[in-house]
Amino acid sequence: MAREVRGLALGRLRRKNLSMNNATAKVGSSRSLLREYMTHLRVERGLRPLSCEAYLHDLEIFAEFLEGGDASFRAKTFLTADQADVSGFMQHLREHGVQPRSIARKLSCVRGFYRWLLMDKRVRRDPTVNIESPASWKILPKSLTEGEVSEMLERTGVAARADNATGAALRDHAMLELLYAGGLRVGEIVALRQEDLRLETASVQVRGKGDKERIVPIGRSAVEALEAYVRRGRPELLKGRGMQRSLFLSVRGNPLTTQKVWQMVRGVNSHASPHKLRHSCATHMVEHGADLRTVQTLLGHADIATTQVYTHLAIDRLKTVHRMCHPRAKRRAGGGA
C-alpha cells in the first residue's frame, strides 16, 4: 500500500514538473515570436520605437490571457490560439472595463501579428478572421471648438509678437500653429528637421507612421509664425552650439521631446492636447466642406476607415448644402407646398 502511495505521488510530481516545463517552453516560444515580430516592425515596416512598444504591450497582454486560461490544460500559445480564444480575449477586456476604442486597437494589433504569422507560414489559419471590432469608429474623437483654438493661438501669438519675445515664445507659437494647421501628430512635430520646411510653397514634408512621407499644406498664419521662429527664435535657442538638424529645440538647444510639446499645449489650455488639436483640424475642415479623402491625405491615414470617424460631420454638411441649394428643400424649409 505504501509503495502504491509513493508511486502515485511520484506520478503526480512528474506530471506537475512536465506541466511546469511545458508552461516555461510556451512562455519562451511566445517571447521568441514577439522578438522576431518587433524586429519585423522596426526593420521592414519602419515603425518608430514608441509604436513598437505599444504593439509589444498589447501582444503581451494577449499572451498572458492565452497562457493563463481557466485551467492548465486550456493554456494556449500564439501558434495554437483559435477564434474562440480571440473572442474570449475581447470579452475578457470588456468585462474588465476596457474602453471600446482600446479594445479595437488591441484587436487591430493582434490581427497584424497573425497576418505576419500567416505570411511566414507559422500558422495555417488566422484566428482573428470574422472577429467583429467594437464600433468605436462611431465615436467622434474629442476636439476643441474653433473659438477655443483661436483663443489658444491668440495667447501664444501675443507672446510671440512682443518686442522682447523669447526664442521659446516664438517656438511655442509656431508649434501650435503647425499642430492645428497641418493636423500633425506630436511625434511628427518633434521629428521635423529644418530642411523639411517648404515655406515658399506653404507646406511641410512630414514623416509619419512607418516612415511614410507626405506633403502637408499650411496656411499663411502658420507660415508667418514659422518664419519668425526660424529667423529669430531658433538661433537664440541654438546659441551657437553647433549644427542641429531638428527644427524645434529646447532652451538648451537640444531636440524637443514629445513630453515638452504636451506640457506646452496643456500650459496654454488645460483641456487641450496635441491629439485634440489634430482632431480639431480634421473636424473643422469637414465642417467647412472638406471631403473625407482630403482629410485622409492631410492626416496621413493609411486606411480611409480611420478617417470615417468624421463621416457624420460630412453628412451634416451635406444636409446643410442640400437644404440651401435644393429647390424642394428650400420650399419645405419655408413652409411652401
Describe, in short, the structure shown.
The chain is mainly alpha-helical and 337 residues long.
Order of neighbouring strands in the sheet with most strands: 1-2-3
How does the overall form come out from the CA principal axes? globular
Supply the helix-strand structural class: mainly alpha
CATH fold-level name of the largest domain: hpI Integrase, Chain A
Give the CATH class of the largest domain: Mainly Alpha
Helical run tally: 14
Which bin fits the share of residues in helices? 55-70%
Describe the structure.
By secondary structure, the protein is mostly helical. The protein folds into 2 domains: 16-138, DNA polymerase, domain 1 (Orthogonal Bundle); 146-321, Intergrase catalytic core (hpI Integrase, Chain A, Orthogonal Bundle). 63% of the residues lie in helices and 4% in strands. It contains 14 helices and 3 strands. A 3-stranded antiparallel beta sheet has the order 1-2-3. Strand 1 and strand 2 (203-207) form a beta hairpin. Helix 6 (167-182) runs antiparallel to helix 8. It is globular and about 70 Å long. The termini are far apart. The model is unreliable at 1-26 and 331-337 (pLDDT under 50).
